[in-house]
Design a protein that fits this description.
Strand 1, helix 1 and strand 2 form a beta-alpha-beta unit. With about 160 residues, this protein is α/β, with parallel strands linked by helices. The protein has a single domain, classed as HybD-like (Rossmann fold, 3-Layer(aba) Sandwich). The longest helix is centred in the C-terminal third of the chain and has 15 residues. The radius of gyration is 14 Å and the shape is globular. Helix 1 crosses helix 4 and helix 2 packs across helix 3.
């Protein structure tokens, strides 16, 4: 398991951001669906696309992981790990296709001292963000890898 990602048991909240009607932009929502389907012992939420709503969602949580499609010009399916406490969202990277909500939320939280102790962005480079509900093969593979890292030693038992 990657040392920059702690096992799921030590995370307080996982937020999945995205738009399930824009193909790979639904990556964050798909990860939340998969975690919920296997009864993972962690609090999960569909993340808001508004900076103030994101702050409200992570408020009170010491550790937050945000999963989203991240456009950085890398090959589709590339997994980006950004510690949002240690560094700003790098220039040239935009989170999803639905605006700058995440970067704005982090900047606002820093300004008003409302950041959780740990805030990690796990982004997957999308291949297709046009209309549709299917996730590309490259991103599906990256989601599986990300789930393995998040779950660590937790056995996933799919709930029907």
């Amino acid at each position: 398991m990657n040392s920059s990602i702690t096992s799921i048991q030590s995370r307080s909240l996982i937020l999945g951001i995205g738009n399930s009607f824009r193909c790979d932009d639904g990556i964050g929502l798909r990860v939340i669906d998969e975690l919920r389907a296997c009864s993972a012992p962690i609090k999960t939420l569909y993340g808001a696309n508004d900076p103030l709503a994101l702050l409200a969602q992570w408020d009170g949580h010491a550790s937050v992981v945000i999963v989203d499609a991240v456009v950085a010009g890398s090959p589709p399916g590339t997994l980006h790990r950004i510690d949002l406490i240690a560094e700003d969202v790098p220039r040239g990277i935009r989170s999803s296709t639905h605006g700058a909500a995440l970067a704005d939320a982090v900047a606002l939280a820093k300004a008003i001292d409302r950041l959780p102790s740990e805030l990690m962005l796990l982004g997957i480079e999308p291949e297709e963000t046009g209309s549709g509900e299917s996730i590309s093969a490259a991103c599906t593979e990256a989601i599986e890898q990300l789930l393995e890292e998040l779950l660590g030693d937790v056995k996933c038992t799919k709930v029907p």
